[in-house]
Amino acid sequence: MPASQSTLTNPGTFARAARQRHRSWWPIGVVAIAALLALPVLVVVGFVLVPAGEVWRHLAETVLADYVVNSLLLVVGVAAGTLIGGVGTAWLTSMCRFPGRTVFEWALLLPMAMPAYIIAYTYTGLLDYAGPVQSLLRGVMGWGYGDYWFPEVRSLAGAAVMLSLVLYPYVYLLARAAFLSQSLCVLDVSRTLGNGPWRTFFTVALPLARPAIIAGLSLALMETLADYGTVQYFGVQTFTTGIFRTWFGLGNPAAAAQLSALLLAFVLALILLERWSRRHARYHHTSQREQPIQRLSLRGPRGLLAFVFCLLPVALGFLVPAGQLAWWALTVADTSYDASFLRLVWNSLALAAGAAVLALMLALLLGYGRRLFPSRTVGLAVRTSGLGYAVPGTVIAVGVMIPFAWADQTLDAWLRATLGVSSGLLLSGTLFALVFAYMVRFLAVSLQTVESGLDKIRPSMDEAGRSLGLRPAQILRRIHIPMLRGSLLTALLLVFVDVLKELPATLILRPFNFNTLAVRAYELASDERLADSGPAALTIVLAGLLPVILLSRSITRSRHAQSA
Amino acid sequence: MPSQLEVHDVSVAYGERTIVRDCSFVLETGTIGCLLGPSGCGKTTLLRAIAGFEPVSHGEIYLHGERVSEPGRTLPPERRRIGMVFQDFALFPHLNVARNVGFGLRHLSPAERRRRVDELLELVGLSAAARQYPHQLSGGMQQRVALARAMAPRPQVLLLDEPFSSMDAELREQLAREVRDLLKREGITAILVTHDQLEAFAMADQIGVIADGHIRQWGTGFALYHEPADRFVADFIGQGVLLPATVHDELRVRTEMGRVAGEHPHGLAPGTEALVLIRPDDMLYDESSPRRAVIVERAFRGAEYLYTLRLASGTQVLCLVPSHHRHAVGEEIGVRLQADHLVVFPRTQATETVSSGIGIEIAASPQ
Known about the structure:
The complex is a heterodimer. Chain A is an all-alpha fold.
């Protein structure tokens, strides 16, 4: 019946009575936070209107075309790589039976723990002229320098391969979920109509999963555009490296902001693509029933082929680079683990933990604000706060630096003029600026987790609490937070790891002499001290395993539910 | 002593849209009331207004003499001393049964709280399940937990929002009677919202039939069935047919089945064209009757058959017959009309159209 249904689906109905009694500061706080978080992007976009003069013309005449072409080539390469790897492995593990399938189901997620810039360091170390692979070749074949051709890792193609190796899990995850949900109803129909398994894959399964695959692909490509560490290390000129160079090399923030705005336009295209594909996904039929899937049995050579196809991304994306990192970490063991390394670890962990807690508090404030005050303004504000996740760290750093530096200079000048004292840097170049940038970029992660948790709590829970004598704030404490405990921990963990891995924003915004694991690994690798970067890089990867374990646990749990 | 619940001329509006319009009723201490109506009629909104979840746009609500709702002022639910059982039970999944039941007893000392929880679990027969969690319980057990939780703080009024709707149809009536016994034993004043009339009859002392946000009739189930105040109530409650009739005098009407007499004057002038409500149990199977009817359809109901009969004029009526009188479709049987309660409505333009309501069909004239 409509009356009671609307109260079930609209969590805000009881808020109507609450709102009538008193105006609250809550919606104002939500809007203020959203406005603050939107500031960096607005600044960057605003700079489109500011003339950057000579520098911009210089850029346009010389390197801009390179930035565009290289970024696009990288996107195309990563798209091809993640599609083949992600869709292929998703299909094999969800629809076929072959040796090791149940292990691959979760092991295929392992490369998610590996930041792209770190995998780039490991393969450079492995495949360089002086690396073990080429040395072995020369030793065995008796070749000398220049006698043979070997693919160059530090190239655009190399960067595309590196990024594909760590980003294909996005496609794998979403495609796998799509294959599993469609499996029962339509695939069987196709088989009864005389289509073989391969034909069914291409004519039914793939088209049905296309929205999910495109959604996963656009996430992977957003990460590709946001990458700075890999392309910088490989010397590939893209937007992110261009922004760095324009700011710090040419000293022109306005031109850097304009490059950022151009990069944002590419990101926006991806966001629209993702939205569009998800809207289509909604109309697709999914089976509600949980029934064991009849998997196609692959025996003999075909089973071996499937095994190798799934093993390759796991081995190349995780096992080999992690092994290399572990080896480096061991070789430098006697010199690396000193007080300064501990300090580095402490800096990183404390920063990441602090940012995660702050993001969680903001997410609760926003998510609960939307539940209590479900107005259009509040809804828009909450959605805006989550958009930063698509914005590359470099762009956010530029958008944070410009207004903060301006505020600092203005305040300093005013104080000098009126009181004769200098305030120095209060905002820019402090941890405040860094944590603020993390909030802009990663609030979406905790917000999404908190909101999906809150959505699962039916409004009748709130009402039951109130009919038993609880005020709204007590309901948050006694009902929502205990029920949300799992979601809250997940939100903390995800932001923690994202902050730990984040490179470009940290690089630009960190206070002078403040180092994190990611920055240290980057610095050492840039100095060609790859082995020395091992301990820091390995620590990041180990921390990155935490959310992967969480994800794979939920996958194995759903498998148990299926077989039960 | 004031009545436990008084609803005076209450309207509830969302913006321009009025959901509940001028509803009034009074519930004395210890009685069980029911708001009965089709989907979307506003009954749940009225219940939520009584609970304090929805503000009223007009009228007042009194709980035990205290004014709790009026336009512009809504005492929040947590300060009303009401208990509420939700459609989905809304048990707290992170708390076990005992802690769910004790949730509203924060003002008691731990020892008193334990005693009250034990008492209620005993009452609903769930003492053994005290340490279990809601997801481990069956639907019926969950409902009893929800009931115990709502009753624990000794509310002034217990509100039940479609409490049986998630149950199997066979269980509903039985559960409704069980809950009624429980509430009666404890002397609790309660109000129930449902769209299921059998549930309402099984549980409530007083029933209000709601349509389009308005209470059409407030009375006992018996009165609603046998003395419906208007066509809607006659249509919504029970089955039956409106048979064309002509008013004979202030107590009697003439139909093609002969004269029917009521106990109270129906207030229509002699000679007026009217409709008279014929329930299936008003038509008696009687082989000796001179009035014959052809069986058009039959439905087996276990103890009886429900026959749809075509009278000589072509008009169709319903007839409930003990199931040992078994006849085939097409057969002609003898019937006679014996209505104890005469329900007469004046015939209006709408007469010739057949209502699509749950039970009642307005007999179509052959012409």
